[in-house]
TrEMBL record:
Keywords, comma-separated and alphabetical: DNA-binding, Signal, Transcription, Transcription regulation
GO molecular function: DNA-binding transcription factor activity; sequence-specific DNA binding
The keyword Signal is assigned to this record: yes
UniProt keyword Transcription regulation, yes or no: yes
Name of this protein: Transcriptional regulator GlxA family, contains an amidase domain and an AraC-type DNA-binding HTH domain
CDD domains tied to this protein: GATase1_AraC_1
Length: 315
């Protein structure tokens, strides 16, 4: 079971913590359990009081972690005086660095990015935070590349989000990367949230780009495509699964997701192929792995600007 370790500082915002915790907890309900742990960023603290006044019990020590585990630093109430931002202790900074150096992923929500900056993990990397403190983060960590007006960024296993509810988007993205888009979509639906991404973020996953709608018929078809995108999926079969005519499915799907079912499947194939190629596979091997007969179609689709704009919900 993969561990998700939340590192808490005084004044932690409840939703910065609860959003990601709920997403990974819900992943267990759909067959992918996580072991959620909570520790204080300050030494010898048995409780951490949230910004909303709720005392939170924390473990005394960091558990042993593997590269598959995730460390998350939720944000805290920053207040009007930047000098009052908490100082992360030497031991916590070293543990954050060591986990990343060992191949693990570290993430932050809102002002939690400052903790990663104090550990030196933002140097030379893209990052973001809540819009109200982006200037302060850039001033504190001048070697970081602060990206504005995005929900989250990923850069070499350092993942930062804009704050508050965007921690849910961050978590859905990580679940999609680890378990596939179908699992992330199921978690989003269980939580009754949009599976969404900022359209200006170039690393947006296909699933999250095209799930910003509430059409349950289209969601059911997308669930099937997400799970079986490497197979041939004829439109008549998809329409029969949805219980509608082919033309109706195409119209509903395009209106809700912004693309046709075929283009959605092609986008999933290309995204997965890009991942395989990035991990050393040849174009030919990646093409066969995602369901293409040969590499010609994959090469053509990689050079095309596939539509990325989701249709407006309810349009």
């Amino acid at each position: 079971m993969t561990t998700v370790l939340f590192v808490l500082l005084p004044g932690v915002h409840l939703l910065d913590l609860a959003g990601p915790a709920q997403a990974f907890f819900t992943a267990g309900d759909v067959g992918h359990p996580y072991d959620l742990r909570y520790v204080s960023a300050l030494p010898d603290a048995a409780t951490v009081t949230s910004a909303q006044g709720l005392p939170l019990a924390v473990g005394p020590d960091w558990p042993a972690l593997t590269p598959d585990d995730l460390v998350v630093v939720p944000g805290w109430r920053v207040g009007e005086d930047p000098r009052a931002w908490p100082h992360v202790g030497d031991a916590t900074r070293e543990r954050l660095r060591a986990h990343h150096a060992a191949g693990g992923t570290v993430a932050s929500v809102c002002a939690g990015s400052d903790a990663l900056g104090q550990a030196g993990l933002l140097d030379g990397r893209r990052c973001t935070t809540h819009h109200a403190v982006q200037d302060e983060l850039a001033a504190r960590h001048p070697r970081a590349h602060v990206v504005r007006d995005v929900l989250f960024t990923t850069d070499d296993r350092v993942v930062t989000s804009a704050g508050i509810a965007s921690g849910i988007d961050l978590s859905l993205h990580l679940l999609a990367v680890r378990h596939g888009p179908a699992v992330a979509a199921r978690v989003a639906r269980e939580m009754v949230v949009y599976a969404r991404r900022n359209g200006t973020e170039p690393q947006a996953s296909v699933m999250l780009r095209h799930r910003s709608h509430l059409d349950d018929t289209v969601h059911r078809v997308q669930d099937h495509i997400d799970t079986h995108f490497t197979r041939t999926l004829p439109l008549p079969d998809l329409a029969a699964r949805a219980g509608v005519a082919e033309r109706t499915l195409t119209r509903l799907f395009t209106r809700a997701a912004g693309v046709t079912p075929l283009r959605y499947q092609q986008s999933l194939r290309v995204e997965r192929a890009e991942h395989l190629i990035g991990h050393g596979a040849t174009v030919e091997a990646a093409a066969h792995a995602v369901g293409f007969r040969d590499a010609r179609m994959l090469r053509r689709l990689r050079t095309m600007a596939l539509p990325t704009r989701p249709g407006p919900p309810g349009s």
